[in-house]
Amino acid sequence: MADQSTIDDPKAPLLPLQKPPDNSNYSFKSIFNKNNICILLGPLSCLIIFFFIDLGPGRQSSRNMLAVLAWVFLWWLTGAVPMAVTSMAPLFLFPLFGLAKADEVAKSYMDDIIALVLGSFILALAVEHYNIHRRLALNITSFFCGDPVNPPLLLLGICSTSAFVSMWMHNTPAAMMMIPVATGILQRFPTGEDVHPDVRKFCKGVVLGVIYAVAVGGMSTLTGTGVNLILVGMWESYFPQEKPISFSSWFLFGFPLALLIFFALWAILCLFYCSKGSAKVLSSYLDREHLKRELESLGPMAFAEKMVLAVFGALVLLWMTRKMTNDVPGWGALFDGRVGDGTVSVMMATLLFVIPNKKNEGEKLMDWNKCKKLHWNIILLLGGSFAIADGVRTSGLTDVLSENLKFLEAAPYLAIAPLACLVSGTVTEFTTNNAATSLVVPLLIELAQSMKVHPLLLMIPGAIGAQFAFLLPTSTPSNIVGFTTGHIEIKDMIKTGIPLKIAGIAALSLLMPTLGALVFETSKKV
């Protein structure tokens, strides 16, 4: 403790002096490491484009937007800076490069779609907090297990559970919830070099099934993945006078599409990872009684769990019935169209902070401490994606970039969907799904206008294709979640991902000109 004379001395430092660090071991290599080089690549590429690239007269805004895109996408691609921080870059880059005012950019980070995600994340945290996801998984898995074990049926149960969970929350939290459930089942099997090949193959199939099933399940609803939300946001931004894509209208198209791709996934997994003799081998380690015991250990459903399920069910019902058909407009018509899906999402999430959990006096179903695990990085990524989409449109960069996709203009009508899907499906393997959508979909909009076709005929295949990130672990965070289990390798993903991607493109090519044309009224002029 300092004496009084030291405290009274006006020249004494306010904080204790620290010994200067020893920089003798701070080498030149430590400065120019891989991460720092990747950090520098962003602003360096931005400046090179700004000073040395000429896109033609009157296209300075397009050049500036291209420079900003290079910076943001290089940071997104390399992960040199945290994804959430990179997603906030448009907030300072757009005003500095004269692309938009600060207030205009900031509005992209909180709108009805962001509110939809925020409310969904809070509900997902409640589901996770009360172990509802684990109870659901064990119920469905024990139902599908069979006695003796039926590997294809068990695989179907795990995959269908994962897909169902992912329908109502983002792919990454869905994968993070389901992978522990899947690995908990796989812990019953032995590990090591001497393990039976059929066991090893089945373990691979389960992990691949979870990460691919959450991707497929997410396609069926607007809340399942950020890509669908980005698509809806771009549609409303570019064509505000047109009928918006509602939760229910997307579900009418997305669910049948996801169902086709899901059964293709199951068939591929059974073909590669369920051999004829696997049932006998797996029965030695896993049976229905084990799953039932684990389910019994959870005990009966408490009041809190039932209320969370009730809120969840009410939210889904309100989403589905807000906008229905022209003859039956839905309850949203009572509010003259002022209510959005985000309104409902936040309203139902708020109920979780009002309804008591009946465990401890004064406690509610949720409190803000439980919300500290909110995926703010995803929310910021969505905001950044919306800001970039607006910037690409308002700067005229879409006109410049769409000239490189002119080859699609010569494509026949039925080839439009698969080609658009193939373009975005290729880009998404090297960047995030959301980033691929933000880059490709604006280009497809401009291309659709030059081809004189309905924009959604290209926008929807472009957005769906961006979700076909099946080949590399780095393509999407949910792939990384599965890859970290140690059960799968890159060659397993490529082996399974290529036929799955082909099946996805085929399913989309079948449904887009038929069901898609009916649901989204693509025969009408925009």
From TrEMBL:
Main location: membrane
CDD domains: SLC13_permease (cd01115)
Pfam families referenced in this protein's UniProt entry, alphabetically: Na_sulph_symp (PF00939)
Sequence intervals crossing the membrane: 37-53, 73-100, 112-132, 152-169, 206-230, 250-274, 295-319, 339-355, 376-393, 413-432, 453-472, 502-520
Annotated localization: Membrane
UniProt GO MF annotations: malate transmembrane transporter activity
GO CC terms of this entry: membrane
Keywords: Membrane, Transmembrane, Transmembrane helix
Membrane topology per record: Multi-pass membrane protein
Protein name as it appears in the record: Tonoplast dicarboxylate transporter
Origin species: Dendrobium thyrsiflorum
